[in-house]
TrEMBL record:
Protein name per UniProt: Ribonuclease PH
Family: Belongs to the RNase PH family.
Residue ranges annotated for the Exoribonuclease phosphorolytic domain, each copy included: 10-140, 159-221
Chain positions recorded as phosphate binding sites: R86, G124, T125, R126
Entries under HAMAP family matching the protein: RNase_PH
Broad enzyme group: transferase
Functional summary from the UniProt entry: Phosphorolytic 3'-5' exoribonuclease that plays an important role in tRNA 3'-end maturation. Removes nucleotide residues following the 3'-CCA terminus of tRNAs; can also add nucleotides to the ends of RNA molecules by using nucleoside diphosphates as substrates, but this may not be physiologically important. Probably plays a role in initiation of 16S rRNA degradation (leading to ribosome degradation) during starvation.
Keywords, comma-separated and alphabetical: Nucleotidyltransferase, RNA-binding, rRNA processing, Transferase, tRNA processing, tRNA-binding
GO MF annotations in UniProt: 3'-5'-RNA exonuclease activity; tRNA binding; tRNA nucleotidyltransferase activity
Taxonomy, superkingdom: Bacteria
Length: 237
């Protein structure tokens, strides 16, 4: 039995509210159970210097957690004077994931920065940030298209992410914190809307896993990502 009483293949409730920030070119608040992440997309008129005169644009991300996103207060990283290794790893992951769904030449020499701020954490924050970050990106690109700044849609496909793991000996979908902190195997899957893989993070936390286990988690991930793509589409209606 899962702590939340969900079925092994059951996602937490998912909602995505768009237009939650006045000034951002694209924004949304994504809620996956008790994990809530505020995502915004900001368009900058020039690409990073390493892309100058290439005709290609860039998508990057920044990620952070509010001090009381968790059950005990975490010190602001700005106050500490540096980002943690975890924060740097996650924001690089978000950037890589979202760039995989973009034709950077069609985007042109400009940059879109995705900011993902965790308001409340209960497991799967990086997955929620990727899924919500894509919605914010989509909204920002829609503005570029509407203004005639880009002539063809640079968004190639939806990008979503979900966690899976082996908890109490069973493969489960969409881990919350109670499961994530006790999982024998922990995995994050990033997929396109067409169920093509962008990135897989999988590690044995307490016991090694088999190829069969990996396949079962992959099947769960595809199921969950189908639901997340549907949630993205619903949010953009």
């Amino acid at each position: 039995m899962r702590p939340s009483a969900r079925h092994l293949d059951q996602m937490r409730s998912v909602s995505i509210e768009t237009g939650v920030m006045k000034h951002a070119e694209g924004s949304c608040l994504i809620k996956m159970g008790d994990t809530h992440v505020l995502c915004s997309a900001s368009i900058e008129d020039k690409a990073p210097s390493f892309l100058k005169n290439t005709g290609q644009g860039w998508v990057t991300a920044e990620y952070g957690m509010l001090p009381r996103a968790t059950n005990t207060r975490n010190r602001r990283e700005a106050a500490a004077g540096k980002q943690s290794g975890r924060t740097q790893e996650i924001q690089r992951l978000i950037g890589r994931a979202l760039r995989a769904g973009v034709d950077r030449r069609a985007l042109g020499e400009r940059q879109i920065v995705i900011d993902c701020d965790v308001l409340q954490a209960d497991g799967g924050t990086r997955c929620a940030a990727i899924t919500g970050g894509w919605v914010a990106l989509r909204l920002a690109v829609n503005k570029l298209i509407k203004a005639g700044i880009v002539t063809s849609d640079p968004i190639l496909d939806h990008v979503v992410a979900v966690s899976c793991g082996i908890y109490a000996g069973q493969p489960v979908l969409d881990l919350d914190y109670a499961e994530d902190s006790n999982a024998g195997t922990d995995a994050n899957f990033i997929l396109t809307g067409g169920a093509r893989l962008i990135e897989v993070q999988m590690s044995a936390e307490g016991a090694s896993f088999s190829r069969v286990d990996m396949g079962q988690l992959m099947d769960l991930a595809e199921l969950g990502c189908t639901e997340l793509v549907a949630a993205q589409k619903l949010a953009l209606v």
